[in-house]
Amino acid sequence: MKFSRKPYVFITSCFFSTAILFSGCSVKANEYITETAQYDSLANEVEVTGVVHGETEKTYYSEVSAPISMLTLKVGDTVKNGEKIVEYDTWDLENSLTGASLSVESSQSSADGQVKDSNKKAAIYNKATSDVEIYKLLYAWARTDSDAIDINQYKEAFDVKTVQRCMNASIADKQYQLTKLGNDISNEEDIEKVKKIREEMDDLEEQIAGINKDIANLPLAENNPEEYKRLIADSNWMADIRTNWTQSQTQANAYEGQILNSSQKDALYKNVEVAKLSEDIAAKNLETAITGICSEMNGIVTSVKAEPGAMVAKGSPIITIEDADNVKVDVEISKYDIGYINEGQRASINISGIDYDGTVSKINRFATGGTSDNAKVKVSVKINNPNDRVYLGIQADVIIFTEEKTNVLTIPRESYYSDDTGEYVYAIENGTVEKKYIKTGIVNDEKVEITGGISEGCVVITDAITDEEVGSKAVSK
Questions:
Q1: What are 112-169's pLDDT values in tens digits?
Q2: Are 284 and 276 within 8 A, CB to CB?
Q3: Residue 4 class from Cβ within 10 Å (0-12 exposed, 13-18 middle, 19+ buried)?
């Protein structure tokens, strides 16, 4: 720790010289400059030099992409809290908002139109598919009726053929009998028997003729007029049904692929939401540009990165401002002194010959600069009472009071000595020089705190002196 004599040590009382008069002595007493041990205030100090900055530094970035229309501040200019420091040209942003609004209208109209058209086609498709099912049912009814007529006709024909087969069989049997009788009659010589056989043959021929007549009178296997009428009606009806069925199925097939499903409808309206989001962003950008950039503090401009007329992209740095109301001095503390520094310690700051009170406000936890052996720790000292004579970026002298005590016994630093045995002073006591070992507390460039060995009022010698003069006569100058 570095100690130096400075005017910042608070002295509550003055030292005074004490003249000790000796009489009746034959040896002339030596005269020494002396001070008296007394109660006072003192502190340890760390003296450093740093640079003045605002406690808060803010760089303002462009929140929109637009040309700058107004930026008049220069480095070193002062700004007020709430003062507009940047204005934008809003023409492009206004056009962007107009385009975004039109895009919302277009996407909304397109989505509504496509959904409406899809719903219309869905209605046609639903009717067509319903008609197909109806035509299926009607066709089945007509087919059933037509088939019933055909079945009746088939049954009637079958019955007629069965009867006809029976009659033909009877005729065949009777013809066989005729043939047999014909054979019998040719071999018979008895006239009476021949006559009787002839009568039997005539009777058989008459029976055969009767059966053939019955066969000829059997009904034909044909539909009656009512059945024919029904068959024609059923045939025409089924033809019409097939035509309409085909048309409905074709229409259903044509419209089925043109109907939007729920996912496709959601996609259309999501496009609308995307367009609305773009519109909201465009509106917000325009609002931000109209508002411009306003200072959030009373401050000093320390950097300007743009100029009027320049096109700045969103996120580009424009201007940096440091706080002018809350000011600090950034100092660097060596490894030898940093152990004595704590936040909250009192400090004295001198800027261009003007003194300010200060307080240690922050100790950086990372040392910078050079190797670890000579790296230093950045410490911020807040200026408690800044005024308009405090200039950012200027150098300032800082004294940090690392340890302060009041109402403690002190002696001048010039009277303090130390050796391998301990700390001591030379005092004048009873007119002679005495060496007194002491115990100390705070030791700075001006004062030494006495915690033992001497008491208040002890006269200590501040002149240069050695042990050889111990025991000699002495008086204060």
A1: 999 999 999 999 999 999 999 998 898 888 878 776 765 665 565 656 666 667 777 7
A2: no
A3: exposed
